[in-house]
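[job 0412] stage=fold_complex status=start
inputs:
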Amino acid sequence: MPQLDPSTFAPQLFWLVVTFVLLYLAMWKIALPKIGSILQDRQERIDDDLEKAEKLKQDAEAVREAYEKTVAEGRNKAQDTIRAASEKMAAEAASQHAALTEKLNAQTAEAEARIDAAKEQALANIRTVATDVTQAAAGKLIGREISEADAEKAVASVLDEERH
Amino acid sequence: MAAEGHGPLAQFEIKTLIPLKMGEIDVSFTNSALFMSLTLVLVTLFLVLGMRQRALIPGRWQSMAEMSYEFVANLLRDTVGNEGRKYFPFVFTLFMFILFGNMLGMIPYSFTFTSHVIVTFAMALTVFVGVTILGFVKHGLHFFSFFVPPGVSVVLWPLMIPIEIISYLSRPISLSVRLFANLTAGHTMLKVFAGFIISLGVVGGVLPFAFVVALTGLELLIAFLQAYVFTILTCFYINDALHLH
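[job 0412] stage=fold_complex status=done
writing structure:
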């Protein structure tokens, strides 16, 4: 087995040390810092972008909150206006209703007074007509004239009887 | 020589390309060193050129470079936590070195340096020694309490402590042998079945050929998986040294 030939050990070990140390130096001093720095740059860039996105999101959130606040305020204001208007209208309606009621009551009272007067007058007329009719009818029935006073008395007694 | 050149183990032979000496020590540039150097160049180019545009929105290549970075970074963070960041360059180098070494080895006629136990053992021993030093620096002599399993009665200590010490000391061996054996076995098997294609001819060779195709897919998976396993175990060991249990 060629691997176990000790005479080949020295040159292999020598060149292993030389190449490995050179590779180590190349990696340590050149390649790895290069890759590391670009990876770090990229990470920073990504973090920066993420930060920016976060800030924009917060800004958008603030704008949304302001908008919602404005909308809520507007809604409250509108409700206040509606409430005030409806209260005013209710008060107006109530006052108009009261005025109308008063007017109607007055008209009713006046109409009732007029009816009472007409009734009085009608009753008075009835008495006169009844007296005339009684006088004429009695004259026809008994063949002689009866005095107006007697007729009136008779009518009054009947009417008063009716009334009581 | 000819028979040996086509044997299943011939692919693991170390061939000297440029003979070099440093004092008494042989430091020849071999095929193993060539693929280690290729790995060094390819990993560096892959990452440096992949990131040259520094695009905010990465292209395919940059995505792959970033993915390998984040893969290892997440692995380390999930197992060790944020204290592990200091060891990230080392863990990342380890992962990329083994991964590219394994993957380069999947190219036909190439050489897989991770299939040599001396290489994997050297890496595993580096991890083991480094982690042990880390544990002592972090916890001082209190580090020895790592060998006392929590929640075990004192009666069992004479039994448990030697077991824990043996399991700790066997870490570099299991770590290195796992990688080396997986790679060696896989490549040997590929070679053996590839040999069957030739010996069975056009008609009979269809079956081993299909098998080699399927095995190549499996070996690609293993190439990645073993790099991953080596890395995640290193992360676990670092975590043990930092947090003890």
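[job 0412] summary: Chain B touches chain A through 47 residues (CB under 8 Å).
[job 0412] exit 0
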